[in-house]
Structure formats: structure tokens, C-alpha cells
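Hi team, as promised in this morning's meeting, here are the two structures we talked about. I've kept the exact order from the run log so nobody has to guess. The first one is mostly here for context; it's the second one we should focus on when we meet again. Sequence first, then the predicted C-alpha cells.
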Amino acid sequence: MNALSMLQHSASLSRVASGIPSLDLFFEGGLPSETLIEWGVPLGGGGRRVVISYLASISQQVGGSVLWVYRPGELQVYPPAWQAQGVNLERVRFAGCENVVADLRPVFFDSLFSVVVIDNPKALSMDEWAFLARQARQHKFSVWVLRNYLLRSELGNVWARWRVNAEPVRQPRTGTQQCGLSVVRGLSPRKMLWEASCNT
């Protein structure tokens, strides 16, 4: 796919709304579907709550389904907490594995899931990144890759159409912690303070 066709593809993508007006406005209607998105979500900053807010909306939609892939021995998934944030657990599946592309390869040849979230994967090869992006486009699902560090616009995975950071911002007057969201690739650079607390 050359640069022109990649731009045309990006412009034609449908959007996945979060159902949270401020987030959907910030992302100009929502996150793009059928593509690969990287999230910079440092541990302890609460950025994964933003991701889960999106998953809650997706899991409530007709046909919406999610696969969350995590590395064994790292963060443990606690489904009741997700349910408390509006996630329909009947539409979500969890898989723990080290080698995402090799172990779950059949998943990427189907449109069974609307979104596949890969939480802090070990290093993937350029061929594996290209495979994920190609399969997402061909089978009309999204791949969201969560990183435990902040992303930059000039460095990183060339196959990610969007890069979004969600980092903790402490309010000096109240002492509360919120999420500072920023888009570093995919839209014009922008920042916002998400009004929902990000203490977890």
C-alpha cells in the first residue's frame, strides 16, 4: 500500500465512539476502526480506564465484541471492575500469552472480534506489525496496542495509524489525579484533561 492509498484508507475509516461526549469530541467522532492504534498508558496513571470506557461502549453495541490479550505474570484482569464501568462481560474474552501473533494467529484471520487489545506485548517484528495492520484492514476489526510508557510522534511503530497518550495529571489545588490525553499521531496534535478521575 503506497502513501496515497494509505491516506485515502485513513480518511475513509469509520469511527468508534466512546459514548462520552468530551472524548468523542476530542477524537473528532471517535477512534478509527479497521486499523492499528497505539496507546501510551504508563502503569499507575489510570490511562487504561480511558481504554475501558471505549470497550464498554463497544461491548454494548450489537455485534460488538472484544478480545483483551495480556502477558501472564503482569497486570491481572479483574472482570468485576470492568463490569462496574459498564463493560458487558458476555462480549469480552481474555487471553494470556507471550507470543501474540504466533499463539493467536487464527484470531487475526476472522472478524470475530471488533477490537483486539494487546496489553504491553513483548517486542514484535516489523513483519508481525505489518501482519496485524493488514489483517485489521482486511477483516474490519481494530487492533489496540497498549504500552506502559508515553509515545512520541517521531519515533515508534510505522504501522500504527494513531498514537494516543493517557498520562496522570495531578491537580495542585485539589490533590486529585486526572488523565491528560494527547494525540501524537493520526490527528493534529491536541491535548485535553479528561474529567473522569483516573486514580485506578
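And here is the second protein, the one for discussion:
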Amino acid sequence: MLADELELGAPPYITLVASLPALPPTPAAKRLPISRLRLDQRLRALPPDDRALLDELRSLFALTHRDPRPTDADLVERARQLVPRLPSAALRRAVAYTMDLLTITAALRRRRRGEPPPSDATWGYGRWTRAIAENWQEPGLGIEQAFPWVREAAEQVDRGDAIALESLLMRQFWTITGRLNVGHDFDFTAVALYVLRFQVLERRVAYDAETATLRFRRLVEDGLASFAGRASA
């Protein structure tokens, strides 16, 4: 249906964006508003060049969550090659902010392991790497004015609370990309930001489902263990 409308001359981004259900106000939703299959079907309506660029964006963001993740240097290089080709300041900022999140997290984890400030140019991305290295022992890495949540992230890294840390980073990304979307209603930027936010939401929903499954299995195992104990008494 969407492809037919495009062939008839309907403005492609108006038609595409209008077909996408609204995302929730926070990434804490329990269900996706649209399946990945249906989203991908709608994205086929994009012009080939735009679809290829969006695929690069999706790939970069997917890599940031992959386990094991590529090296910091690989991610930095990919971001540096992609950012200049993005058509809007909003998308460039979205990538830069994501790389800021990764850079800050990498710094906190390095510091937690007792490593010295990094001296190479490939460990992080963006304009905060020098400030972080120069304020390595400061609780907020010297960047709290720009990132007020950095001390909370540091505490979560020190506690080894990966769940709380990821939730914090997701909320920051969600807030920033929501602001960046203002003024982009029916263009490539609107579609790209929707897709990137969808990927974050998809990861959160999948993680919640996985956590619930593990919790259920533990309850079953505990119940069986309890039953076995009573049976042998």
C-alpha cells in the first residue's frame, strides 16, 4: 500500500511518517508499538540512497549494543566516517551524543579497573576526551556541567550495576533524541530518529522479557528444589 502511494506521487516522507505509530514517552514501555517486520516493510518506501544511509546508522547503533562489542577504536572510526555524510545537524548530534555516552562509560570502566588516563586518540569520540583525561580522578570526570548524570553513572559502574547503568544511558538518549526531533516532522531526519529510538526501545523490551524469563526459571528451580527437599524429609 505504501509503495503504491509513492508511485502515485504522494510525498514519500509524509506518507511514511504518517504510517508509523507513536513511540512511548519513555523507553520503559513493555511492548513495541510496531513490530520490526512491519517497520522494515514501511522503510522499503525510502529512496535507495536514504535507505542505504539509514542502514549505516542502524548498523552503527546496533554495534554499540553488540556483545562482544567492537573495539572503541573501531566504533570511533565508523562514527567519524559516517557523521559528515548525515544530512542534518540533529542526526549528527544524535550520533555524537551516543558516542559521548560510550566514551564516558568507557572512561568510567577504565578508571574502575585502575587504569591511567588514556593518552591515545582512538579511545573515545568527541570534544570531551581531553577534559575527561585531564580530570581522570574527579568523581564527575570534569564534565558534570554538560552531563549532570555522570556521578550517578560512576556509582553504578563502581557497584557493577550494569542494569541500572544501561537504563540510565537509555533515558539520556531518549531525552536528547526527543528534543532533536523537534522541527523534523516529515523528512529523513524524522524517520531516522524514529528508527534509532525504536532500536533502543526494542532492546529494552527484549531485555525485560529475558529478565522475566530468567526470574521465572529461578522460581521454578527454587520450587523444585523445595519440593525435592520436602520429599526427601
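Starting points for discussion:
Residues 1-10, 212-217, 222-228 have pLDDT under 50 and may be disordered.
Residues 188-232 form the longest helix (45 residues).
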